[in-house]
Design a protein that fits this description.
Elements (H helix, E strand, L loop, with lengths): L1 H18 L2 H4 L22 H39 L6 E7 L4 E7 L8 H20 L5 H23 L8 H26 L7 H33 L4 H6 L3 H16 L16
Antiparallel strand pairs: 1-2
């Protein structure tokens, strides 16, 4: 009896499908359900109040960060000083201050020097680069993304090997200027985070508390991550020479920080909006 009822339902659905225009069937799946537009192609209606609140939130968070840049710079200087001593690396840490009309910027200056590569270092790096390239060719098909990543690393390191093999004394950068430049870039990137979130995240109906929380998590993570990241750069170049600076700058500089931002942003965008939460859920957050 149940099978007869099931067949009757199926026949009824088939009859409804038969009376629909052919043009309507392109919007139906194989089970007869409507195919919804992918969210990547959906339009988000922007209300004036949503735009105003997004701009105001981004402005307040940016203003707060501008007042915190000087303490963060001093924190970075303390981290560098402590870790240089623990790692037994030569050099000292000083503070560079720049006073604006309303805000002060503080950045640490590291005096640690990194040597130019000698012939043995260049040869070892070249052999390691060739070995890495060979490994990238032998990786299985399911590791194709890793294979291409290793080839990009090998290409960048190959340019450094060729340059330092023939023109080592023309290399214009030193380790102190590199660290100062990267910390300054990170400071600028963190300063831009509220504005980026204002354009891309605050426009969604996720609640003010969640927006402020996610932005604070991103900025706090970068504040802690950046000095430790560049301390690792300092250690690699002091022990291995300046031949690794192009690779560290291109692949392991700002790119990991951007990836951290994307990871936090993706996590936040997976949260359900206030309109999607079940009834009785607190919508004030």
């Amino acid at each position: 009896m149940e099978s007869l009822n099931h067949s009757h339902v199926n026949s009824a659905q088939d009859q409804r499908w038969a009376h629909q225009p052919i043009s309507m069937l392109r919007h139906r799946g194989y089970r007869g359900k409507a195919i919804l537009r992918h969210r990547a192609f959906q339009k988000l209606p922007l209300k004036p109040w949503s735009l105003i609140s997004s701009a105001a939130t981004a402005f307040v968070l940016t203003l707060t960060w501008l007042f915190l840049r000087a303490p963060v710079g001093r924190l970075w200087a303390s981290i560098f000083q402590v870790w240089l001593e623990w790692l037994r690396l030569p050099g000292a840490v000083t503070i560079a201050q720049s006073h604006g009309t309303y805000f002060e910027t503080v950045l640490p200056l590291v005096s640690t020097k990194a040597p130019l590569p000698d012939a043995a270092t260049i040869m070892c790096v070249a052999v390691a680069m060739l070995g890495t390239f060979y490994i990238s060719l032998r990786l299985p098909e399911w590791l194709v993304p890793l294979s291409y990543f290793l080839r990009v690393v090998c290409f960048i390191q190959a340019t450094a090997v060729v340059f330092f093999a023939f023109f080592p004394h023309y290399f214009p950068h030193t380790l102190p200027t590199y660290v100062s430049m990267m910390l300054d870039s990170t400071m600028a990137f963190i300063s831009a985070v509220p504005a980026i979130m204002g354009f891309t995240f605050y426009i969604f109906d996720l609640g003010l508390a969640r927006k402020v929380l996610l932005t604070s998590l991103i900025m706090s993570h970068l504040v802690v991550f950046a000095p430790l990241q560049y301390l690792l750069h300092v250690y690699v170049m002091v022990k291995g020479s300046l031949i690794f600076m192009p690779l560290l700058y291109t692949i392991f500089g700002l790119l990991p920080q951007v990836c951290c931002f994307i990871a936090f942003y993706s996590w936040g965008l997976s949260w359900s909006s206030r309109t999607e939460r079940p009834r009785g859920h607190d919508t004030t957050a």
